[in-house]
Amino acid sequence: AESFLWWRDGVIYQIYPRSFASSSGSGVGDLQGIRSKLPYLQDLGVDAIWLSPIYPSPNVDFGYDVSNYVDIHPDFGSLADFDALTADAHARGIRIVLDLVLNHTSDQHPWFQQARQGRDNPYRDYYLWRDPRPGGGPPNNWQAVFGGSAWEWDEASGQYYYHMFYKQQPDVNWRNPAVRQAMLDVFRFWLERGVDGFRLDVFNLYFKHADLPDNPPKLGLRGYDRQQHLYDNNQPEMMGLLEEIRALLDQYPERYVVGETFDSPAEMAAQYCAPGRLHAAFNFKMLTQGWRPGGYLRAVQEWEHVLSPESWPNYVLNNHDVRRSASRFGRGENDERLKVAAAMLLSLRGTPFLYYGEEIGMRDISLRRSEILDPIGKRYWPFHKGRDGCRAPMQWDASENAGFGAGQPWLPPHPDYTFRNAAAQAEDPDSLLNFYKRLLALRREHAALRQGLFQPLSYEPRAVLGYLRQTQTETLLVALNFRRWPARLVLGGRLAGKRWRLLLSNKRSEAPVPQDGVIALAGEEALILK
Ligand code: TEU
């Protein structure tokens, strides 16, 4: 039970490469920048870094539109830089997870450049081309996630092509065996280079219903939400493909693949990470959960309920697509609530994912309309202000550009960097950064925190979330007070009579002694006892 498997027991840290650290002074982060921060990441205690896409891309969707799957974007460096980063990371015990965006390519990818040459081009069938419906217009009513019809008219060939996201992101035809082979070769290329794992972007969209039937209508706010997405995702062929991908990965030791299940119920995600398929599928419940312990507990229990016993859960509070947790539920400059959230994330049964800057409580930047770069924001302002807010430069120190590097950063740093930064927090024993570090160290030390049974305690659903993590040899108690004022954790039977030892608290330095089976928690206290 004391075994340590990096993707199950470890912590995975997501880096948005444009925004982490710049070695070149170009205003854009790069691989050498990341490499220079490996000591920081090792000190923080993470086991792996997941890099958002680093491949050549015209950056319509900032790397999620790939024009070459087997090279590095010149902004980020070269394959040699990548090899150097991988070697250094491995030497420090840090694994590398790459983001594979295989549902669509960039319209600048040579395959698409070929395909749009005409109906007879050998690459035509790499994408989804269709004639107009009889009488004219797109072949069906499918909507793009990023707005409008998902079909783009190509005047030259008199056909439409399909794109679930921007029109510069044409979806590939996964039913074409040549595409399937080419994509599996992409996995092989990076596996051979020593990559440890992959995050699959919107993998459950790879297959669409072959007959392309109209989606039935639904009440919803905007285009994409105004239909039931029955036919443009989650088709049965997916399972066989996942099994093939898994079999390929299993030819290499300790490789890992986590999928981003787009817009689907947890039951569906659970199917995708059943044995023999993905190691994990993201559970995004906590990205939208309000600051209520009952909601988080429900998210955990729903996930545990649908997962097969051989599957492994994962939890995430932040990523590059949503408002940062510190902006969602942080209170002014006070970080105590963020410590409670961190203690939860890092003590649940499941792989925790962190997002760069979360460990110092970075807030979203706010931009004027004219400064918005994310096309979602440009299109949907003010209904959706885009995703630039959570992609600002990492706040390393109080020097110019937050220590991100010389040159005007591609997005402005949050103005609070003068006091909210990694260097300042490293010096402050009570900082959020040091709290994360202690939590990561505790996880490493205590197998119960990684692998133990998760057992909720009777709790006060509007104030306290309490649970045990138990192995055969260890019982840990986690108590999280979500409120600003004191609260009670009621323990029953043998738990009440135990002599507890303090492992961690943001509010006390000695273990509490239960009185009549009750532990008194301070406001916004995160408490871990053994
Ligand atoms: O995201 C899919 C997804 O969930 C988003 O498109 C979401 O709907 C959007 O962010 C609105 O909040 C993945 C990537 O994470 C995202 O960055 C890409 O833009 C998208 O796929 C297309 O590749």
From TrEMBL:
Database matches in Gene3D superfamilies: Glycosidases, Golgi alpha-mannosidase II, Oligo-1,6-glucosidase, Domain 2
Domain Glycosyl hydrolase family 13 catalytic: 14-391
SUPFAM superfamilies recorded: (Trans)glycosidases, Glycosyl hydrolase domain
Any one GO molecular function term: alpha-amylase activity
Keywords: Glycosidase, Hydrolase
InterPro entries named in the record: GH, GH13_cat_dom, Glyco_hydro_b, Malt_amylase-like_C, O16G_dom_2
Highest taxon listed in the record's lineage: Bacteria
Keyword Hydrolase among record annotations: yes
Key word Thylakoid present: no
A biological process term (GO) from this entry: oligosaccharide catabolic process
One Pfam family hit: Alpha-amylase
Similarity remark: Belongs to the glycosyl hydrolase 13 family.
PANTHER family: ALPHA-AMYLASE FAMILY MEMBER (PTHR10357), NEUTRAL AND BASIC AMINO ACID TRANSPORT PROTEIN RBAT (PTHR10357:SF179)
Protein's recorded name: Glycosyl hydrolase family 13 catalytic domain-containing protein
